[in-house]
Amino acid sequence: MSLETFIQQLANGISLGSLYALIAIGYTMVYGILRLINFAHSDIFMVGAYFAFFLIAVFRLPWLLSAVLAVALTACVGMTIDRIAYRPVRNAPRISALITAVGVSFFLENLGLVTVGARPKPFHRPELMARVVRIGPAAISGVSIWVPILSIGLVVILLYVIYRTKLGMAMRSVATDIDTTRLMGVNVDTVISYTFAIGSALAAAGGIMWACKYPQINPLMGIYPGWKAFTAAVIGGIGNVTGAMIGGFLIGLIEIMAVAIFPALSGYRDGMIFGLLLVFLLVRPTGILGETLKEKV
């Protein structure tokens, strides 16, 4: 493999990994607080992309404004899902919450198929991301450069919120002991609702950037990225934001570089990713940075 190809594929791997990291963080935030795998998270990813699509294509808003509004609207969708679907089963057996999450996922996918149709729609990306940039001998698309930059910027903001704000302190407290936090006068339901909003906003940002990288969208576009992001969250240490980010970059790099180095294995790249998940579940089920979490009863 030439140096030019290596640089191009490395940039593609980092770009893809940063998207997986954004989605994985949403999974790990909800799990860290509720011990719930929010299977609808991958469909929130799709909802954010469609919000941006309609704001750009129908309302003719500028791309940046459309992206910001789409992220805000998707955050509201996340809060609404928590209020309508998850809060009523908060104290129910875990299997009830899990079934609810699967049901919400199917609802969003089929709502998308009914309302916007199954036919893929082209997604407009700004000229800045469509431009080709030369780095040494390699020609790299702008989207492969801007996606990691924007993703890392969003993660830095998230870490600031978690570790430097009262909301973040409340989120960490709820994740440690929800009952004691409630006894201390914290409105736990509000904290959880904000957690869903932040996770959904990150998923929306990931969905918009995914649509820029692969410029077409459809109602089922979140399924495979969602499963791989969930794999990244488990490998990094589900419940740990930094671990989810590391897992996302690791999965993206493995997926791209393995195929670049061994082209004959291109048909098995999904199998390699999920095989890696099985290895971690057998050898280190808590992930790279994960810790053994106390079961809530």
CATH topology: ABC transporter involved in vitamin B12 uptake, BtuC
Averaged pLDDT? 90
- Low-confidence sequence ranges: none
Report strand order across the widest sheet.
1-4
User: What is the overall silhouette?
Assistant: globular
Class by alpha and beta content: mainly alpha
How many separate domains? 1
Identify the CATH architecture.
Orthogonal Bundle
State the distance separating the first and last CA atoms: 53 Å
Write a compact overview of the structure shown.
Helices cover 72% and strands 4% of the residues.
Question: Can you walk through the features of this model?
Answer:
- It is a single chain.
- With 297 residues, the protein is mainly alpha-helical.
- Helix 1 crosses helix 10 (223-236), helix 2 crosses helix 9 (188-213) and helix 7 crosses helix 9 (188-213).
- It has one domain: ABC transporter involved in vitamin B12 uptake, BtuC.
- Helix content is 72%, strand content 4%.
- The chain contains twelve helices and four strands.
- The longest helix is centred in the first third of the chain and has 32 residues, at 3-34.
- The N and C termini lie far apart (53 Å).
- The model has no long low-confidence stretch (mean pLDDT 90).
- It has a two-stranded antiparallel sheet with strand order 1-4. Strands 2-3 form a two-stranded antiparallel sheet.
- The radius of gyration is 19 Å and the shape is globular.
